[in-house]
Inverse folding.
């Protein structure tokens, strides 16, 4: 873990996301101060707004962490967005808090069902295909399409 390297890579990823127009409409960059990016997003199918925290800590060695937070950037679990109108899969049996189970995020690779030691794909396998800017585009698309609401 090299903080200066992680910060340089994160800055590049966020700037690429900004330049590509990911933060438009109801998916807005609220705050970006390394290592935390905070996004304000509106549901397209419910009258709700969510705040997402993207944590780039140790981004040189591990993927970003995507969590739902309140206005003080403290992680919350309720109300959690819906996925295709239904609750997100419950990760509670693994004694983990609810999280966005999406390729390219830290929780995806550390969850016991995806853990490389348990037979799942490793972060290194997906690093090039799922950098933070790609994850941000995917999350923005999921909210804009109503898949997540």
């Amino acid at each position: 873990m090299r903080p200066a390297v992680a910060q340089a890579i994160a800055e590049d990823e966020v700037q690429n996301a900004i330049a590509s127009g990911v933060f438009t409409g109801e998916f807005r960059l609220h705050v970006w101060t390394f290592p935390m990016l905070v996004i304000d997003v509106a549901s397209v199918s419910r009258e709700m707004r969510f705040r997402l925290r993207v944590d780039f800590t140790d981004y040189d060695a591990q993927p970003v962490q995507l969590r739902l937070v309140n206005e003080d950037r403290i992680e919350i679990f309720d109300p959690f967005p819906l996925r295709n109108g239904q609750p997100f899969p419950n990760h509670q049996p693994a004694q983990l808090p609810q999280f966005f189970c999406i390729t390219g995020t830290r929780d995806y690779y550390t969850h016991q069902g995806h853990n490389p030691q348990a037979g799942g794909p490793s972060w290194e396998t997906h690093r090039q295909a799922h950098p933070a800017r790609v994850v941000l585009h995917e999350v923005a698309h999921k909210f804009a399409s109503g898949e997540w609401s």
